[in-house]
Amino acid sequence: MDASIAKAFAQAGARAIGIIGRREHLLKSNIANIVALPTNTDIKVDYAVSDVSQYGQISAAFEKLPIALGMVDILVSNARFLPKPTPLRSADDKESDLPGYFAVWLASPEAKFLKGKFVWANWDVDELRLRAKEIMEPKALELTLVGPAFKSKIRYKYCTIPKNL
What we know:
The protein is α/β, with parallel strands linked by helices. About 35% of the residues lie in helices and about 10% in strands. The two termini are about 30 Å apart.
């Protein structure tokens, strides 16, 4: 399990980071790595063991983390199922860090025009900025997923759960 997005937010100054995943030993290892990073803030990091396919476990995780962390700056869900990847080419360190730093930029005011839009980390940021007006059009770069509704009273700094869910 890779926590590059959580690490990038820690280095960018997030106050609190919550991680959800199925394997506790990996979550603990990632938290130790995040806490050891040089940051300019006194960061709080916590985890919740949860299987993303189990509503009760996810619900409990979404209740636990705000109690432990207060207002959550970023929540990284590491619970997933993917087949064993086949590398298209070998990536250097700069490429492997790209998703984390791109996610930090997406959370910045400069990327506000991408809120609610579907993007890839390897897209050119300068081109995205140039096409901001086009991207802000309704339906542009939008992806709709339908699944279980998460009912919660949790408020997150960078994402909110609509009250009507």
